[in-house]
Write a structure and sequence with these properties.
Blueprint lengths: L19 H12 L7 H27 L12 H6 L5 H21 L4 H46 L6 E2 L2 E8 L10 E8 L2 E9 L3 H21 L3 H15 L6 E10 L2 E7 L5 E4 L2 E4 L12 H4 L6 E4 L5 E5 L1 H4 L11 H8 L4 H16 L7 E7 L33
Antiparallel strand pairs: 1-2, 2-11, 3-4, 4-5, 5-6, 6-9, 7-8, 7-10, 10-11
Length: 415
């Protein structure tokens, strides 16, 4: 709470121009919102709140020095009109009162007739009242929007559940940004669940945006969470998702996804269905885990007549695996250059996945100029290093640090 102020009153009219700068400073202080905001948004909000006062001051100065008197006074209405977009109704009334008071003072100083002055002041008062009403309506819409956003956040937590910092043998972190910023949710999806068959996860991207994409993403996640607990074989999990999508997707809809499992130590299983290749971080550097054989996205298998392929990746202590969606790698800067995720991951890499993703997210926003135009999700797993004494080569990686892949002899049965 602000400390109470002691007001010293005098008997001079408030519109008297003996100390006009003092009145302007007082109005500016009232127009500026309370402290506590940080960053560029707070600076812009403060500046926008002061602009109406500056406009009123400029018009008053021109009216006093330009020698035209009343000709400038109608421009005082710009102050309360602009304040309606940045301040609340009471803030608009204060700005309007300042405009009316200074207008009256300038009119009296210029020797304007009472009738002409009354018309100008009445117009200023009418604009102030209309602007105050507009500010009140804007405030109500902002409150409704805030309520909608809070509901969207609750839906996101139910739909995209938070990933714990530690899952099984892994440290984990996730970062998600929706292109529809007001909705906070979009068509990208992720889930990380412990099951009787080890840790299993999915990261995917639904074709399209908006509510239809959200509905498809919710369907995929629901089927995945059930199948991940029920199916011992990771390929059967993919098969369950494919069957569900075949019944519910439209002819032009599909989902790219990577489904992964960690059945035992030092081995990660991957099934890549038309998705961006995960990035493996090990001693040899950042390596993309490309699928051994291209597999169509989920929902398009009937058209391509291709079965998914199981891929095994050696995962030693200290290795990290980054899953992401194309909203990250296809983000462009002002020169239309794509975001170099593998290079930037090597720069921002740390032993804490949450810190790594936070740095990558900030770097991504800097690359695009502050606003993403597509949903973007990143999920990072790190297998903590175990302090042991042994040979130089680490278990689970070959001499050159390439991931080990295997194509199973038993593909998923067709529908």
């Amino acid at each position: 709470m602000r400390p109470a102020r002691i007001h010293h009153h005098d008997h001079r009219p408030q519109w008297q121009l003996a100390h006009p700068l003092s009145a302007l400073r007082t109005a500016a202080r009232r127009a500026v919102p309370p402290r506590g905001e940080s960053g560029g948004a707070g600076v812009r909000r403060h500046f926008a709140s002061v602009v109406p006062v500056l406009i009123i001051a400029a018009v008053t100065f021109l009216a006093l020095t330009g020698g035209t008197g009343m000709s400038w006074l109608p421009l005082l209405a710009v102050g309360p009109a602009l304040a309606a977009a940045t301040s609340g109704p009471w803030g608009v009334l204060r700005i309007g009162a300042l405009a009316v008071g200074l207008g009256a003072a300038v009119g009296i100083h210029a020797g304007t007739s009472d009738r002409e002055l009354a018309i100008v002041l009445s117009a200023l008062s009418a604009v102030t009242l209309a602007s105050s009403l507009a500010a009140s309506l804007r405030r109500r819409r902002e409150q409704v929007l805030a309520a909608v956003r809070s509901v969207a956040e609750a839906a996101q937590h139910a739909f995209l559940k938070p990933v714990p910092a530690t899952v099984g043998p892994f440290q984990a972190a996730v970062r998600y940004s929706a292109a529809a910023a007001e909705a906070r949710i979009g068509g990208d999806l992720y889930a990380l669940v412990p099951t009787p068959y080890g840790i299993r996860l999915i990261v995917g991207d639904v074709r399209g945006k908006g509510l239809p994409a959200v509905g498809v993403a919710a369907l995929v996640l629901g089927v995945f969470r059930e199948a991940a607990y029920d199916e011992p074989d990771l390929l059967d999990v993919v098969h369950r998702i494919e069957r569900s999508l075949a019944r519910n997707l439209g002819p032009d809809d599909f989902v790219t996804a990577v489904i992964a499992g960690y059945p035992d130590a030092d081995r990660m299983e991957l099934v890549n269905c038309g998705h961006a290749a995960p990035l493996l971080v090990q001693d040899a550097g950042v390596l993309p885990v490309e699928p051994a054989r291209p597999t169509p996205p989920l929902g398009l298998r009937a058209l391509a007549d291709e079965s998914p392929v199981l891929q095994e990746v050696a995962l030693a202590d200290g290795n990290q695996l980054l899953f992401y969606t194309d909203g990250v790698t296809e983000a462009r800067d002002h020169e239309r250059e794509f975001y170099p995720l593998d290079e930037r991951l090597a720069v921002h890499l740390s032993e804490e996945p949450s810190r790594t993703l936070a740095a990558l997210h900030e770097d991504l926003l800097t690359h695009v100029g502050g606003e993403l135009h597509d949903d973007a999700a990143m999920l990072l797993l790190r297998k903590p290093a175990v302090t042991t004494v042994g040979p130089v080569g680490s278990v689970g990686s070959n001499a050159v640090g390439e991931p080990v892949t295997r194509c199973p002899s038993r593909p998923v049965a067709a529908e």
